[in-house]
Give the backbone structure.
Amino acid sequence: MMDTVASPRHLLSTKDLSLSQILEILDTARELGRITAGPMKKLPTLRGQTVVNLFFEDSTRTRLSFESAAKRLSADVINFSAKGSSVSKGEGLKDTAQTLEAMGADLIVIRHSAAGAAQLLAESGWVRSSIVNAGDGTHEHPTQALLDAYTIRTHFPECENSFSGLHIGIVGDILHSRVARSNVLLLTTLGAKVTLIAPPTLMPVGVESWPVHISYDLDDALTSLDAIMMLRIQSERMSELFFPSEREYARDYGLGNVRLNLLKDKAIIMHPGPMNRGMEISAASADNKKSAILDQVTNGILIRMSVLYLLLGGNPVPVEGVLV
Amino acid sequence: MTKSHTYLINCASLPDGSTVNLAIATGKIREISHAELDHNGDETVIDATGLLLLPGFVDLHTHLREPGRENSETVLTGSQAAVRGGFTAITAMANTNPVADSAGVVEQVARLGREAGICDVFPIGAVSVGLRGEALAELSAMAQSAAKVRIFSDDGNCVSDPLLMRRALEYVKSFDGIIAQHAQDPALTKNAQMNEGQISSTLGLKGWPAIAEESIIARDILMADYVGSRLHICHLSTAGGVEIVRWAKSRGMKVTAEVTPHHLLLTDDLATSFDPIYKVNPPLRRSEDVIALRAGLADGTIDIVATDHAPHSLEDKECEWSAAAFGMIGLETAFAVVVEAMIKTGLMDWARLTEVMSTKPAEIAGYANHGEISAHSVANLTLVDPGEVWTVDRVLTASRSLNTPFHGMEFTGKVKHTFFNGVQVVNHGELTGRRYEES
């Protein structure tokens, strides 16, 4: 968790982030983006530091995003993929993390199928490294929420320091979504109105206590949304009886072409990827000018640069054109 | 040598507040009196001033891990933890490896208990072969074996098939057996990790709904009543479960129920630490449930406290929550936790504590030599200091496992001395090394 204002060591959950910390991360990302858009594409700020991508669960996109971010800051990167050995034998986490730290890790980016894995690593005393949660089971994915907030901010510049007045809808498998959990906490801290839209079977028990609005009807909420986040729906949810068929899900909760036309003019369409085109989102929606989906990918690198930079206490951001 | 040893216990308090002196000889309470007892000179004299004299505690739900997982616990180390917790009788659950589903295994456990010789170890037999919930185990063979099994349970698993449950309930009637049900509908709890509610939803851990427990309790109460059999509900953990049992008892149905110490004190928000020390089956529930369980234990809806002592090795707990084993140890802390949850809150007095931790479990299971303090009764008893403040240190446990959720917590009330069949097995909280040997 970003412990206190002073010097946070880990990023585990968006619940630990204050408004000022969120804005600091977003501002730093913007500044890093501004600098690296110039002639100096790579900054020397984390030279000599080692970032480990410890991925117990496959996610090529997230790993590549963290890897690019670390490399643009001149950190050394070690990628470790431990797919398969994950939850079957828990001792793997302790041993693997300690082994990688013994190889010189300063910061560990962990992706794991078990909720709480990042927090366990941060609080168990097994390692000294800073920990960044890159997705832990169905718990949280804080850098995804941060890049989403960054993306929203770039599209609504009038909402620079507060999202109050913005209505953001998160649609789909809320129950199993770490993206939804991290976004609910982050977006509400930023002051946005958040509406969760899903069939009742995919709403978490006790969701009424969350600081959000709940709707089972996408069409109801659609026309008032400034941003609509479509969550990936996994087909195995069908065999787990959460909904009867892909067709019925797409009809009731998919962003199809008819719904696309009902969105506000300035509304943006978001998706954490990877998409199931034709399922939760139609091809036309994904490729529409309202779509911010590729912006999200680009912004993801900046947000992860910002997080690595702030956690590793890198050298001050250099003035453009001046080497440090 | 130990058997003939005699003890004089002076100035012990009873739950009713009176003070007694006690002479123990040849395994029995020779004399109990308000007057001073004669001293022959060769007795061991114990000054029990300020200590409360209680019948030895009786646990109907203990996991001893032998045979099969001796790295976590053995019958001996479990017995040692038990007597340090004031227990003189424990009941070994059947989920060992091999499973205690045959006369051979239950006799082995009973023999290991006699060899340990510091408390009674009564084996529970499995209801189904291999705990698989498919075919009935040879219940009668276990009942007629030297282990004389009377309680049967698939604990760890629920006997979820209604037909198997019906047959088991009916079958044990011939030898007055009891089915102890671990109430957990498996379809509603597949891969479940913790109580389903606001906390599980926030943490993204798969929820374990209260209804998965309550629907089985309701079904089995109706079924046991229908076939006229004795049903015991293991580790009740939800407010709804308490309500159902209360209703059943008001109808005069033959059901008994237990609650664990940890469910009387701990709540599901501990899971926010993601520390698997708090991972247990059934899961820790909401504070509303804890309050209902306490009320149920106080008013008699819940009959007894049972520890569900569940030792696990460090490897099985030092890992991600979802990879960790379910369970916590509890024999040595049970008394103090019950004091904390029930006595200090004013919900129960010492007489009721004696009932729920000794008299009533002995009665349910038919353990003749336990649950009683009177002249000529077998000397299975414990002396506790109701006022001693102490801090749990997992390193000091006699158990082979360290998975207590109470490490570092301060409690009031400590077990000081335990006598098993007239032999002092615990002295000032420590094992004496003495054991009871049958003649």
